[in-house]
Amino acid sequence: MTLATASSAIDDALARIREIVGPKGWIDDAKTMAPHLLDERKMFTGTARAIVRPASTEEVAAVVSVCAEAGIPIVPQGGNTSLVGGSVPDEGWDGILLSLGRMNRIRAIDPLNHTITVEAGCILAAIQDAADEADRLFPLSLGAEGTCQIGGNLSTNAGGTGVLRYGNARELTLGIEAVLPDGQVWNGLKGLRKDNTGYDLKQLFIGGEGTLGIITAAVLKLFPKPKTRATALVALAEIDKAGALLSRMRAATGDQVTGFELMPRNAIELAIRHVPDTVDPLTEPYEFCCLIELTSADPEARLGEALEGALGAAFEEGEITDAVIAASEDQADRLWFIREAIPIAQKVEGGGIKHDISVPVSQVTAFIREATKRIHADSPDIRIFAFGHLGDGNVHYNLCWPDGQRDQREAFLARWEHFNRIVHDLVTEMGGSISAEHGIGRLKKDELAHYAAPVELEMMRKIKAALDPQGLMNPGRVL
Ligand SMILES: Cc1cc2nc3c(=O)[nH]c(=O)nc-3n(C[C@H](O)[C@H](O)[C@H](O)COP(=O)(O)OP(=O)(O)OC[C@H]3O[C@@H](n4cnc5c(N)ncnc54)[C@H](O)[C@@H]3O)c2cc1C
């Protein structure tokens, strides 16, 4: 086939795709395409022949079949909030971007089975609302929940603030419907708690970052809706006390801890500086604070008393030095606001080098100590914002240029790989993960290749080659 005939075959295929999705499902003007082609962190831009927005699984399957036949690569996109550049094509790229946003129906809620069946383009917050209306809880919750879509959440195996109690996206998913790279539809929408019929195929798509197929729908677990909560902000006597405090809280409250978030002083101060209405209710500038939340589905549960009792004992044992317990829902929301303001403040500050890492929960504070020692031995003035889901062993260990030296930003960012090596070497020494919840995408592909065992990479490549022999699904991501 000559170049001219190949390009006319692609043009024909694109015309067929346009027919399949109709005018509402086809975007090719530069202005409307632009936000889809720039990632959340404004680090990556790309190009695409068109943005294709199918309205049903059948349309996705038909589009993917045409692409498979014509050899057109596909980048799936949900809410485009990925922090690792996974949802945006490369520059000079010649495929289509497949946006799931029109597939946003809640297909069914089964309150007695505690499940909800949703299409991939449902916004996460809309699923939470639908569950709430049925007097149930869908516990996946994260800062981008007003924008991200469940297809993106599952494709990145998202975590968020409820993992300690309810697990991450993988643990919240019972079934999946997916379109395979050859256009076949796999209907795995089973709402079963028990199903041992061979390989658990849905797990390939969860955390698959769109490289093995397109998730079009899912059956998700629901839980009894919490009727009471108790929230506190506590000052740790020293960071090493965090693990003991978490264990104490879990044991003393009948394991009702839903959130256990670490917030260091410098991150709280950055939030106060950059995000209006952020207020630290503690009277002194303590070096490390934890936000603790308990919830219960029992409206009579005396969570406030349980929290107060456990914190009193923690105080006696020298684990904490101060605490504020929220006296109302509004106060609890304001405590969470501080935590949510931290990543926003970092963005306003100008970004930095993010490390979304995990280690065993018992090792988190040792990790923070040792990593900080190594970073400061290398570059003493670098600011380190180490915050996050301590209860899950997941720290956002983010580095920033020295305070007041914004003009050093570019030179600092140019040392990204150097800092990666320091942090990720330690993570690996401690048996941790270089990507706890954001995935691999484009940003961490080389890191995965560097740290994963050869046998792991080989298994992944074999799975990819078996399902997507032409390499058309989100090419160049993950592997
Ligand atoms: C403010 C903020 C806070 C965040 N907090 C957290 C947090 O606490 N925990 C956490 O885990 N993440 C967090 N994230 C990261 C991000 O929001 C999550 O990774 C989210 O799950 C991505 O969903 P999305 O719909 O935006 O996916 P996108 O960014 O559109 O896509 C992510 C990846 O999934 C693929 N994909 C998307 N939809 C599909 C589909 N239907 N089928 C196949 N592949 C698909 C894409 O190709 C891409 O590789 C945060 C992001 C922001 C901006």
Overview of this protein structure:
The protein is an alpha+beta fold. The protein has four domains: 97 residues, Uridine Diphospho-n-acetylenolpyruvylglucosamine Reductase, domain 2; 119 residues, Uridine Diphospho-n-acetylenolpyruvylglucosamine Reductase, domain 3; 118 residues, Alpha-Beta Plaits, CATH 3.30.70.2190; 82 residues, Alpha-Beta Plaits (2-Layer Sandwich), CATH 3.30.70.2740. Helices cover 36% and strands 19% of the residues. The strands form five sheets. A five-stranded antiparallel beta sheet has the order 5-6-10-8-9. The chain has a four-stranded mixed beta sheet with strand order 1-2-4-3. Strand 5 and strand 6 form a beta hairpin. Helix 8 runs antiparallel to helix 10. The chain is globular and about 75 Å long. The model has no long low-confidence stretch (mean pLDDT 95). The site of flavin-adenine dinucleotide (FAD) has 37 residues, from strand 3, helix 5 and strand 10.
